[in-house]
Amino acid sequence: MPVQDPFQISVPDDAIATLEQKLDLARLPDELDEASWEYGVPLADVKRLVARWKDQYNWRKHETDLNALPMFTTEIEVDGFGTLNIHYVHQKSVVRDAIPLLFVHGWPGSFIEVRKILPLLTESSSDHPSFHVVGLGLPGYGFSEAPKKKGFSGRQYAEVGHKLMLALGYDEYVTQGGDWGHLITRTAAKLYGPKSSPPGLFSNPIQYITHLLLPYTAEERARLERRRWFTIKGHGYFEEHATQP
């Protein structure tokens, strides 16, 4: 098993002072009369956020709270991309034979998404299973080292998560992923999980024929319409990052 180094967050005072100075020097633009979110973030919201970060947010308090998490770093070799120093949370359950869980955040999230549910996931309960939780910090996010070469994609992120679980002694595990993390865990399942095929005429004939013959319900039509709306109106950042990262 590779070396697992305990990790604590320690942001230098001068970095915090520099951030406060940048916020103090911010010069905000005017906006159109009666502007709304259709024209971008309203100016009043930007001013409120600047004031919050500059005058009200106590980083040292939150840093202390985060350092209560069982955090570690370790070296993971990624095929074709060298070795990366990976940061993660590892909280074992009080239940000895609990289920190993790889928890993968999305964009623009981080490992702290697992923090609030750690007690629930790791506790002993008659109502739900218990888990040994590994909260992965994806390469390039938070405190995990970023790759230096182009072409690092979902397959490589999945490789990092899988190799981390193996290094921790979890030969079999389940995954949870949100947003981008969902695509990563799905890729991990395809690469390293049991092989399966999607529902089809022979693998699931009832579901297949039902889909072909029965009309959509009103609720399903509403969901399809919502999807169409999102594709047209809510897909801008996806297109931006896909074409002009």
From TrEMBL:
Alphabetically ordered keywords of this record: Aromatic hydrocarbons catabolism, Hydrolase
Q: Which GO terms describe its molecular function?
A: epoxide hydrolase activity
Is Hydrolase found in the keyword set?
A: yes
Epoxide hydrolase N-terminal domain location, by residue? 5-114
InterPro entries xref list: AB_hydrolase_fold (IPR029058), Epox_hydrolase-like (IPR000639), Epoxide_hydro_N (IPR010497)
Might you name a Gene Ontology BP term for this protein? Answer: epoxide metabolic process
Taxonomy, superkingdom: Eukaryota
User: What protein family is recorded?
Assistant: Belongs to the peptidase S33 family.
Mind telling me which PANTHER family this protein's record contains?
A: EPOXIDE HYDROLASE, EPOXIDE HYDROLASE 1-RELATED
Q: From the Swiss-Prot or TrEMBL record, give the protein name.
A: Epoxide hydrolase N-terminal domain-containing protein
